Amino acid sequence: NQGAVHRANPRGPVVWSHRGASKNAPEETTAAYERALADGADVLEGDLAQTKDGVLVVIHDNTLARTTNVEEVFPDRAPWNVADFTLAEIKQLDAGSWWDPAFAGQQILTLHEWFELNHGRAGLAPELKSPTLYPGMVENLAKELRAWGYTHDLKAKNRAPQIWVQSFDEAGLRQFHALLPEVPTLLLRSGYPFMTASDEVLTELATWTTAVAGNPVQTTASQVRRVQSFGLQVVSEVEDGPSLLSMIEHQGYDYMFTDVPNVAKAVLADK
Ligand code: G3P
Ligand code: CA
User: Of the N and C termini of the chain, which has fewer Cβ atoms inside 10 Å?
Assistant: First the structure.
């Protein structure tokens, strides 16, 4: 029994589409994000890396090998690290066929292209995946966000969609927060220790980060409520099963992470 249902958000958790609708289209491509938007996702999630010529691109891995045809196009450039390729080279790659030939021609997106395709329709949650691998990446992200007005003044005018910057790298996320304190942050940590952290730890976290991540299988509604009582929001780890998604909703999480935004929205619709 998860105790009384505590709804941090009366409409139920906000749905974050993990790498886009990544069970229905090749992750982190225009196809995956357009499907997520069509499925009603409230937020588009993606991971950031940086090219050799310093451009932020949306890709989960630090190499191009798994999600593009880079080994065919550049056979002698192993291990095909993103950091060793220019944007022009990366733009020659097919980021869809690996998943399904029907998606041939999908490309790796730049951060700017990702913002543009979203066109304000949903929130955005870029993750600084490995900031220590990419010199200047955190400053680069802060500069790009400032350039496009993803700061509180435009949000105050409701003209910039909500954005959360997330990372497993606490130092990198703290550095980002110091550069652009008005942009909400989500601190990720494998093992999700935050949900049972001490009052002191939660009090300190709440001085700088907006949200922390939890795993609904390990948490209870009262643990979620306790973390929220320190002024922190709680994001669930990625779940795709309807029963786990409804557990996330019943435990009062603020946001739910899923590869299947259509399933999550259906679960929330019949609460
Ligand atoms: O961004 C949170 C979640 O995506 C962490 O897992 O490896 O899919 O980025 P990963
Ligand atoms: Ca991620």
Answer: N
Q: Which residue shows structure tokens 């009366």?
A: 10
CB 105 within 8 A of CB 82: no
User: Which two tokens mark 148?
Assistant: 């496009």
Please give the ipTM for the structure prediction.
0.95
Closest alpha carbon to 83 in 135, 156, 159, 11: 135
Neighbour count for residue 81 (Cβ, 10 Å): 16
pTM: 0.92
- The Cα 73–Cα 206 span in angstroms is 47
22 Cβ inside 6 Å of ligand 1: no
pLDDT tens digits along 225-268: 999 999 999 999 999 999 999 999 999 999 999 999 999 999 98
Q: Which residue among 61, 127, 212 is best mutated to probe the pocket of ligand 1, counting the most ligand atoms within 8 A of its Cβ? A: 127
Q: Whose CA is nearest to atom 10 of ligand 1?
A: 60
Reduced to 3 states (helix: H, G, I; strand: E, B; else coil), residue 233 is strand
Q: Which atom of ligand 1 is least distant from the CA of 18?
A: 4
Please state, in angstroms and rounded to a whole number, the distance separating the CA atoms of residues 137 and 48: 9
